[in-house]
Amino acid sequence: SAMQFESKADCLHRGLKSSRWEERQVAAKELPLHCVRRPVETYVVEEYAKVIADEKFEVRRTALEHVASLVERGCEISTRAILKRMWEDESWAVRLSAVRAAEKISKHEDEQSLFALLGRMLDTELKRADSYPIREAALRAVLKVLGNDESIMMVMNRMKNETWKDRASALQVLLLGAGKLPCRMDDVHHERSPTSQGYDIFTKTSFGSDETSMLSKDARSGREALPFEMKPAWIPPNHAGVPSSERQHEWEFRYRMGIDTSGFEPSYSTESSGRHVVEPEDARDRRERAHAIDVKLKNGTSLREIQESDHRIERAREQPTRHETLLRRGRRDPRVSSRKELL
């Protein structure tokens, strides 16, 4: 069929920058066909990377499906854009396309790609047709990026009936032992960890309303399930079987999967249910402050008078009290019976 855009320049300037997401989607699909020279110019790759982060998930998914036809394997700009979608995108369809794209363009044994694919083996996706497409695609991609290492493939094949958490943990241990990874995936302190490289690996992914139609009936019925997310935790030392002279008493900081709150929105509160979310103190102060201003305005106080009153209160708070002044001068307030009361 005839293409909508006439040339590479037409795709770049009229298509990818269009205000209509349908045109951006078509341009993302047609641009690789117009790029005859290989490798593609850097500015073209940079513009295409912006489309991978488009606001519409349909455009992001299309760009990820065709990026392998545009760039060479190992392209750093495209790889980073893909990994950002793999870690942070809320659309399961985009994350799946990102996994498949990483399998095609990630360079051999790229550690950041391995980190991201390990993370997608623990994706919070819903089960579809008795399978987990993102997790299964991530496992295949890991093996492909590793060059189909026979020993790792054998271990993963033996663990095919284990939980995905156990399989991901075992794979991470194998990669750490083989020197393929510099640290654990959730190590927030290592300079080569995903978080240190600028990836938000603890983003809570959820299903957006724009992709609900893509879910099966069973998946739609489970959309309101309590979401899992990575939560920080301090792990106490395990002294079982360790001599007292060799015991370490430092707690270890890790992230663990946990249920995100109670499943209700943060603003949820009702008298009849008896379940309330504790309102943050600063939010409560702002709400009470706004209510006080409304009352003053209704009573005829001007906004200027309210602001001047606030300024006087703030200045009074900044002034030291009599006790503080005397304490700084090393004197005792005669109205205070003891120095303990003064302090």
UniProtKB/TrEMBL annotation:
Spell out the Gene3D superfamilies in the cross-references: Leucine-rich Repeat Variant (1.25.10.10)
Could you tell me which residues belong to the region Disordered?
264-343
> What SUPFAM superfamilies is this protein classified in?
ARM repeat
Species whose genome carries this gene: Guillardia theta
Q: Which InterPro entries match?
A: ARM-like, ARM-type_fold
**Which protein is depicted?**
HEAT repeat domain-containing protein
Q: Classify the source by domain of life.
A: Eukaryota
Comp. bias intervals (Basic and acidic residues): 273-297, 305-343
